[in-house]
Amino acid sequence: MALAERYGFELKVCRPYRAKTKGKVERFNRYLKESFVVPLAATLKQAGLKLDVEAANQYIGRWLTEVANIRVHATTGERPVVRLAVEQEALLPLPQAGRPLPVRRPMRPIPRESLQHPLAVYDSLLEVAA
């Protein structure tokens, strides 16, 4: 949140289980859980320890270096560490200081549930129009 405020972008909260909006994130979370969290939790459990944030932070750097960033990605066919090196040449540096934040007017929250209706609602609207 602080990074978003500093550099002037908004975080978008996506609804769970919506492949069109969250597919890449959901897939990475699954990969992270299956190849990092579960094996680490099992290893720690054998040693009589419990996985917590501190333990995860202690091991994540090594996992990224030795596992995640050197594997061949199924979609791109490339190693993420190699792909990042190529893309970094085209990336612009972050601004030295964040831009001033615009003044925000208070907004009335809109329940997300009201934005999507069951298909029967749309069917009944189409029947009336026909």
UniProtKB/TrEMBL annotation:
GO biological process: DNA integration
Family matches, as InterPro entries: Integrase_cat-core, RNaseH-like_sf, RNaseH_sf
Gene3D superfamilies registered for this protein in UniProt: Ribonuclease H-like superfamily/Ribonuclease H
GO molecular function annotation: nucleic acid binding
Integrase catalytic domain location: 1-88
Coiled coil: none
Top-rank taxon: Bacteria
Protein's name in the database: Transposase
Lineage: Bacteria, Pseudomonadati, Pseudomonadota, Betaproteobacteria, Burkholderiales
